[in-house]
Amino acid sequence: MTTLKNKVALITGGTKGIGYGIAERLLQEGVNVAVTSRTLQSAQEAAERLNANSKTEAKAIGFQADVRNLKSQQEAVNAVEDVFGQLDVMVANAGIGHFASIEDITEEQWKDTIDTNLTGVFNSIKASVNALKKTKGYYLTISSLAGENFFANGSAYNASKFGVTGFTQAVMLDLRQHGIKVSTIMPGSVATHFNGHTLNDADAWKIQSEDIGELVADVLKMNPRTLPSKIEVRPAMPPSK
């Protein structure tokens, strides 16, 4: 997929943070983009902002979809194909974080984390396999360095991201026979609103959402013979502890 112009991408959780940064960059590359959110208003407002800032002929649209529900994801994929006629790239990005000791984390927080971060990735890929078979497309999942490195109070989040990392690598082996490429990107600290964080000047050292967008574009433009299947990315100069 060395040229991206006129390709079509669906980005889950694409209304803010990493997902929005990816959507912005792909629009710059001439990719038509669909972003999803659990609320239609958020998805449509994000699409409006993306289109207002775009300097290419590519278009962004917004759909309501819940990654926790396979039928909802299938409906989103069908809607993208109805509007654009194809789907070339699925970015399974939607995610949440609940952080607490195993003594304190609730069953609801555990289920919410696993259902969104892990089952949501399964649903996103499962719903779009047939669409990507037609285009010999590309799956990108957004895991985390927490998908290889565990930490205190991270039981639910670690479990979900370890799962995404392993799941993605297995899917890569399943689907490459169809000409579909599969990669997972594993960021460290990213300057986003994740988990209720408010961005401020102290976040300047972190990876920025547009950096992940640039990385995604570079991966998609690589020579088709090469597959970067698992990509770790971290801040170049974190503060000294």
From TrEMBL:
Report any Pfam family annotated for this entry.
Answer: adh_short
Q: Which Gene3D superfamilies match?
A: NAD(P)-binding Rossmann-like Domain
Q: Which residues form the Ketoreductase domain?
A: 7-194
* Keywords associated with the record: Coiled coil
Q: Which SUPFAM superfamilies match?
A: NAD(P)-binding Rossmann-fold domains (SSF51735)
One Gene Ontology biological process: monocarboxylic acid metabolic process
PANTHER family for the chain: 3-OXOACYL-(ACYL-CARRIER-PROTEIN) REDUCTASE, 3-OXOACYL-[ACYL-CARRIER-PROTEIN] REDUCTASE FABG
The protein, known as: SDR family oxidoreductase
